[in-house]
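This entry is listed below:
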Amino acid sequence: MTVDFDKVSSAMREVAEQVIMPRFRKLSADQIEEKAKDDFVTVADKEAEELLTPILLDLAPGSIVVGEEATAVNPDLLENVKTDGAVWYVDPIDGTSLFIEGKPDFGTMIAYAEKGEVVQSAIFLPAINELFLAERGAGAFLITADDETIRLQPRNGPAAVSEARAALYTRHFPSSWDKKLERLRAQVMSAHSAMCSAKEYTDIARGAKDLATYYRMLPWDHAPGSLILREAGGVIRNLETQADYQPVHLQGPHVLASNEELWQAARHVMR
């Protein structure tokens, strides 16, 4: 089944207006917690997820919500990536550190999956009022701050790593990948990480970047963007297994690329 994602996107906008943007550049110290080393959560993250969860459950009766903040409290929720049932993956504020620092490159991400595959998704960047939507087989779209709807078209290039603008996330890679990642870094045209998956996926889908690497693949970080990227003609695939990403894949050396030829070129460099 498909879900009414107009209602999902409306909920994302409303929640951003109610609890996220009023805290942007106005957080007090007691509204910020450190869940783990360099992993922060704010009162806005928690309240946004709490508001979104019942709305999503109502839109797909019988579904389960796997949210980043709820999973931080109850890690067993992550076991739901293995179900064939309907699952929502929610990141209320992706790029929380940027949000805390008052930088605009953060977003809310939601994906809806059935039988282990993402079928619909949305990424909302509230500070710049841009919404990205995708439905499997129906394309990916950007709704701009001026309310213009733009279909994201597949890109033929770049085909060469030397022409690629990259975001290389290396933190969780095993040390056996160090030299391979350095080879890739040495060959790309430029390398800059936004420290926000919502921004990286949408930048590649819209043509502002071309390539990214990740190893830790938590579903709320990657399920929403994976569908938007694919529907815009991009690729997200494990280098070792050559399997296309699915939410059940929680780790592994993944490369995101704007097109198949570039993905293959990156794979060749990292062999």
Observations:
- Helices lie at 5-20, 43-59, 68-73, 96-101, 178-187, 197-206, 219-231, 260-269.
- The chain has two domains: 5-151, 161-269.
- The first strand starts at residue 32 and ends at 36.
- DSSP finds eight helices and 14 strands in the chain.
